[in-house]
C-alpha cells in the first residue's frame, strides 16, 4: 500500500535550521491531487498542526509563522518543510499527511495518508 515517508529530521542546536522532506513509497499515489500538511507531536503532547499546502501554502500554526516554510515540488512528488530559528519547543516527531484537495486543512481528520514520522530534537 502506498504510504508517505519523511526524512531530514535530526538533532540541531537552538537557532539552527533543518529541512524535512516527504515523498511516497510503494508506488501508486500521486500527490498531485492532494493537499498536504505537516503535523507534529511533542513529548507528552497531542498531535498538532504545523502547516498545510495545496499549490501554495494554505496556513501555518501561529507558533511557527515567520520561521517555517512549507512547499512542494510537483515534479518530484515531494513536500518540504524548511525550519529556521528552531527552538527547544519545536522538539517533536514530525509527520507528513496527504488528504482530499478540498475542505479543512488543520485537523488530522482531514488527511487519510500519513507517514511514520521523523524525530526533530532541538537542544538549548
Describe the structure.
This protein is globular. With 124 residues, the protein is mainly beta. It starts with a strand and ends with a strand. The strands form two sheets. Strands 2, 4, 5, 6, 9, 10 and 11 form a seven-stranded mixed β-sheet that branches. A four-stranded antiparallel β-sheet has the order 1-3-8-7, with no helix packed on it. Helix content is 0%, strand content 52%.
Strand segment tally: 11
Q: What is the mean pLDDT?
A: 94
Which oligomerization state do the chains in this entry correspond to?
Answer: single chain
- The end-to-end distance, rounded to whole angstroms, is 39 Å
- The coarse overall form would be globular
What's this, in brief?
By secondary structure, this protein is mainly β. The chain has strands spanning 3-7, 10-13, 18-25, 34-41, 48-53, 57-60, 68-73, 78-83, 92-100, 113-114, 118-123. 0% of the residues lie in helices and 52% in strands.
What topology does this entry show?
Layout: E1 3-7, E2 10-13, E3 18-25, E4 34-41, E5 48-53, E6 57-60, E7 68-73, E8 78-83, E9 92-100, E10 113-114, E11 118-123
Summarize this structure as a short list of keywords or feature phrases.
124 residues, mainly beta, seven-stranded mixed sheet
